[in-house]
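Build the 3D complex.
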Amino acid sequence: MLDAYVTALGMVLDPYVLFVITASAIYGLVVGCIPGLSATMATALLVPLTFFMPPVPAIAAIVTTSTMAIFSGDIPGCLLRIPGTPASAAYVDDSYQMTLKGKPELALGIGLWFSVIGGLFGTAVMMVASPAIADFALGFGSVEFFWIVMLGLGGAVFIGSSTPLKACLSLLIGLLIAMIGMNNPAGQPRFTFDSTEMLGGVSLIPMMVGMFACSEVMRHMVSDGSAPHAVVQKIGPIFANMWRLTKQYPWQLIRGSALGTIIGIQPGSGADMAAWMSYAMSKRFSKEPEKFGTGHPEGLIEAGASNNSSLAGAWIPALVFGIPGDSITAIAIGVLMMKNMAPGPTIFVNNPENVYAVFLVFVIANLLMLPLGWAIIKVATRVLSVPRRVLMPIILLFAIVGSYAINNSLFDVGVMLAFGALAFVLEENDFPVAPVILGVVLGPLLEEYFINSMIKSDGRLIGLVDRPIAAVLAAITIGIIGWTILASLKSGKADKQPAQG
Amino acid sequence: MKFNDLLGGLVFLALSGLVAAASWSLPNPSEQPLGPSAFPLILSGLLALCAAILAINGARATQAGPLLGLADWARSGSALARLLLVPAAVIFYMLCAETLGFLICAPLILIVLFLAGGTRPLQAVGLSLAAALVIHSIFYLALGVQLPWGPLEPLRW
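Done.
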């Protein structure tokens, strides 16, 4: 193991990799800082570039960008009361109140300092837990993996979503998209409409760029797009008071980091849910809950640590089982597969150095966040004034060229547009988009595990649950689904008023 | 575009029917008990189930509104026009990139989009040339992607 870590360190400390990490860090910080450009969009736009990189820098770019963007989403939340990414929405009131009180440096300092600690906490858990879980999972067969994928998809649809039925439909659309092409156990072309371009299935990169970048450009086009103005221009010393706050609220810090990691591990819920739950928990256990929402540091500390720790947590199921916890890890898994590093327990045996390199990138990215985060906060008021009406057309052009670049194919540009339009229409009608991408990434695996399991058991469904671990996983999955359906039936009866408009 | 849940459910129901029909006819050359049609059929069944529930919920909702409502932004003609510029720009690129080349096509798209967003004309021209050159350099010089040159072929660098 130590040998593998030494090899991994050598891979990460390569000048090219360090350059990629630094560049993606700056890119992630800037994009996350601009309201209306989400961390997911930042990551999706980067994917075409990672296509041209070797595996380790490609993954490093994804990890670094998402980590930085989740932190810097706090900046516009604090200065403008507009969260830069959904993960910062939970505590935007507290941080904006601090700004109004003339202490933006305190809110931003907390965001930075406790994001770093939370991120390192989550990374430490990931480094210890994932090899152990992978070791345990080595004995899993197709049946166990079938249920793990089901659990991941079930969690995404039934836990991470406010409208389970619509999330379910989104997921099924994704799974059906995954059926296109000949990438199935029978090797038979399906739903290709006799087009040779479709034989290999829908290409993942143009699809992701379309769903997460093109659709956001469309959404910008129909919004009023007026650039908000920051109320403060001057930001004081950032790291002052941080050590005092760490000593004052150690328990909140640990609780936020731990809860964030757990929520990250649990498939289907990511940084946004981690922040909301940690903020609520902080308020619930606080000695002075009445101060929450008025510029009180306690909730900021707990939720700020939580959303960054969840990022590392989400990588545990992603690396060990190939199950994405949210859209960012879904993108990352797509990149891993593209680089012939398909995640799963065997990757820990066959290429441990690659996995450890991912761990080390997390550590470096979090440490790098201190100086670079400090720098972005210092120039934040200027970054915030970059008008979106200038950025959005450039993003669209980047999306076009990025989709084209993978195969030099204009067909892929069309795929990008089609999925952009699909995501836009879905979101307009309150269908979540993340389950679509989860379905597309996991669809081929789910089918393969299902068909293999059924062949092993001669087509009897009991074969899916007659091994103990599979039975336990099945029970959890069915429990989550059943419980959600029951709960929605109950709440439907409790208030007869139609909730949907 | 806002669909009523009833309409959305019916659209998905139709989709599930189409998928099921297309799956039935898939050949199964290796004579497996579960051939290539098995999994899509299961999915189309689940899709039909969810779509039916959505349609029923939509039909039950009393204040459901029209079948195909318009979001607030769609009532304003200019917002709709700006939205349609996005697919128009992408389709323009797909049709004209090979003949016009990237360095003509891309600035044209950017200028139109900048002007539609309210950027001043001179600024729009400068920005679009600069942005197109930067993106061209990233993909052509740094990544070696063969972007089309079109009539600028003699200038290729």
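Chain B has two domains: 2-69, 73-155.
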